[in-house]
Design a protein that fits this description.
Length: about 350
């Protein structure tokens, strides 16, 4: 559904139906291992339009930038640190009314490659909506760099990314050949047994990889394997549905990926997960201040999470972000998740919930 100013600007609906505004940050297309960002974030807020509009006016008074539309990078400047902390604080407009689903891109690539090649239940011509077995994926991802060294591991990640990309460059068969050369090189490096077993299984999937490349050359898939937005939206709807106790209607910033067929896929997938879903409306951010707040949250969360992933996190900002982070975020790095996880509020640092899979 498309939107116009009159349709897009509405207050949150009370009762059994909840209306949530969404936006994302960190999209690099299909280049998940060599793009500008290493984290994808999908933010969502449930606040009345009036509350969002009032906060944006307050922000303009505090920042005084001539920009027509404020973005997260305005708040991330050191001179506006107080405004950033105010937004995320327990007394701010978002606390208890916002959520962010994080995706660690490199882990997402490994997860999707393992699912594509090793999961017999997800071999569809038109879509890919599965997850790799969590134990296999985590063992390979968390031990890969240590077992193989940073350069060799980076080569593997890039080869997996290239294999899964729909729009490849060069010879049609080169992504498959390069991926399996990389697998062979990793196996020669004598990794620990649990990683060696995963590589052995992957090495036997050349036929499936060839079939995948043939399919995507013939027909652009409805759900590209390397697109984190679509599953993130399902996770967002699941969060706000509160176990099916509420029906969720999403108001999302417009973008080309959200076609009617893909929105139908989101609705169907959410329904299979027990989510009450009342559709999605696409609205330009400037028409809805709630979407602008979701954009702030997504951009801020992406930057903070990326800093933590790279070992330079700001403890004060991490503490402010943590209550908003979804426990079903797609995250493989154990050290950084122990810092970002909302469970860290209680002194617990577990892996993202297995319920995150939601068959997406």
């Amino acid at each position: 559904m498309t939107g116009n100013p009159e349709e897009g600007v509405r207050g949150a609906v009370s009762g059994a139906l909840v209306e949530v505004a969404c936006d994302e940050s960190g999209s690099d297309g299909e280049n998940l291992t060599g793009g500008n960002t290493d984290v994808f974030a999908h933010g969502s807020v449930e606040v009345p339009v009036e509350t969002a509009a009032a906060y944006l006016l307050e922000l303009r008074e505090r920042i005084r930038s001539p920009a027509e539309e404020y973005k997260a990078n305005h708040l991330l400047r050191e001179k506006h640190r107080a405004a950033l902390e105010s937004l995320l604080s327990a007394s701010g407009p978002l606390y208890g009314h916002a959520h962010v689903h994080l995706t660690e891109k490199a882990y997402f690539v490994v997860d999707r490659a393992v699912a594509l090649l090793l999961d017999d239940s997800h071999d569809s011509h038109d879509s890919y909506d599965g997850h790799g077995d969590a134990a296999w994926v985590l063992a390979l991802y968390r031990q890969g760099a240590a077992d193989f060294g940073a350069d060799r591991w980076r080569t593997f990640l890039e080869a997996a990314n290239h294999l899964l990309r729909v729009r490849g460059n060069g010879e049609p068969d080169e992504p498959v050949a390069a991926f399996f050369r990389t697998i062979a090189a990793l196996r020669r490096a004598a990794p620990r047994p649990e990683v060696a077993r995963t590589l052995e299984r992957l090495a036997a999937t050349r036929t499936r990889a060839d079939a995948y490349r043939a399919r995507v050359r013939e027909h652009y898939p409805l759900i590209p394997a390397l697109n984190p937005l679509l599953p993130a939206i399902v996770h967002t709807a699941a969060h706000w549905s509160a176990g099916g106790r509420r029906t969720v209607r999403l108001v999302h910033d417009r973008q080309n990926m959200l076609t009617p067929d893909r929105i139908a896929w989101i609705e169907e997938t959410a329904g299979r997960a027990g989510v009450g879903f009342d559709g999605m409306e696409l609205v330009q951010a400037r028409w809805d201040p709630r979407i602008q707040l979701a954009d702030f949250l997504a951009g801020i969360a992406r930057k903070i999470a990326s800093d933590v992933l790279n070992g330079r996190g700001d403890p004060a900002l991490v503490a402010l972000l943590r209550p908003y982070v979804g426990p079903t975020s797609v995250w493989g790095d154990e050290r950084s998740w122990a810092v970002l996880s909302p469970n860290a509020l209680n002194g617990v640092a577990s892996a993202p919930s297995a319920d995150a899979n939601l068959a997406v």
